[in-house]
Amino acid sequence: MKARLPFAPDELAAVRRPLASARLLPVAAYANPDVLAFEMERIFHRAWLCVAREQDLPVPGSWMLSHATPAGLLLVRAQDRTLRAFHNVCPHRASSLVRGERGRFARVQCPYHGWTFSLEGALIGAPHTMKLRNFRREDHALRSLPTSVWEGFVFVRPSGDSPSLPRYLSPVPEPLARFDLASLVRARSVEHIVRANWKLLAENFAESHHFPYVHPELNRLTPYGRSASLPTRGRWQGGTMQLAAGVETVSMDGATHDRPLLAARDEVDRGKVYDFLLWPNLLLSVQPDYLLTYRLWPIDCRTTRVVAEIHFAPGTSPAKPCATQDVFEFWDRTNAQDRDACERQQIGVESGAYAPGRYAEVEDGTQRFDQMVVQAYLGK
Ligand SMILES: [Fe+2]
Fold this sequence. Notes:
By secondary structure, the protein is an alpha+beta fold. The protein has helices at about 10-15, 30, 35-45, 165-170, 175, 200-205, 210-215, 215-220, 320-350, 365-375; strands spanning about 50-55, 60-65, 75, 85, 100-105, 110, 115, 125, 145-150, 155, 185-195, 225-235, 235-240, 270-280, 280-285, 290-300, 305-310. It has 2 domains: about 50-155, 3-layer Sandwich (Rieske Iron-sulfur Protein); about 170-375, Naphthalene 1,2-dioxygenase Alpha Subunit, Chain A, domain 1 (Alpha-Beta Complex). Helix content is about 25%, strand content about 25%. The strands form 4 sheets. It has a 7-stranded antiparallel beta sheet. A 4-stranded antiparallel beta sheet has the order 4-3-2-5, with no helix packed on it. The protein is globular and about 75 Å long. The relative contact order is 0.16. The structure holds fe (ii) ion. Fe (ii) ion (FE2) binds near residues 210, 214, 215 and 338.
């Protein structure tokens, strides 16, 4: 697989140099289907991937589809309340098992020939198989993938050897560990298809250098000059930003109104925003009174599905439109600005008129992400 990567050694070495002399990733990293195939196998399928919140699967029989793999993963709350994750593929004739995005069922029935499975994945109905030779139902069960929960986030490990989820996440960055993320309630989930390679979106998240040009409104609330990187630990990288004087939070009017601050926030954190990227594709942004998360799912090498969610502390009332609307409105605009920026980059990267550029001095976060990508390309 490694031999198929279309990179010259010096192109990857250039990303790994100190920032002052480094270059960005080679063009093929953003535009070559073989590179994406490698990334899916060697990066995504070997990672613990965040696929849902526990609140998505509240009772036995609750199900949802995650787009973590091309066919999708079917997430189910089983009868014993444990979470199961199955490939959304029928073992009979390979049809997708569910249509739609979420719902509730007593059992899983394939819409093609009616094979039926329990919530635990056992095959309990297979029409016209009684007289088959050597046909054992247990050989055709849905195989559950490893599933684990951290702070209310549901993670799945699609394949390969990987440590347990606690080991994968360790050490959780100290500022992030201070917040009671498990208690948060998601009030909004929006999906966008972005015409840009998934790494362009991650690189964009890792720097605030673009704020004054792309997000003048955001830059007034969290000026990019007041940002700082946090040390990279394990699979986490992050940074912090200081809110401008008199600003309580990032929203249309910069005020928290009656929204409670996130639990465990202390004086140290007041007036700060923390951004984290959990390798490879989960972005978290801790604001004073809410949490933003983004999950990046590559569709092909130039298209990415982004699931953008906003979570509040318990006690925030989404029933009162004024309680959350100013946050939603702010991030709808800001996320649209980022999507536009990344789509314009994708066009430029593929134009034939671009060779890997240089990192600006304040783009160390972007370089740190790219260096993790290069490590994966090199098999390290
Ligand atoms: Fe941005």
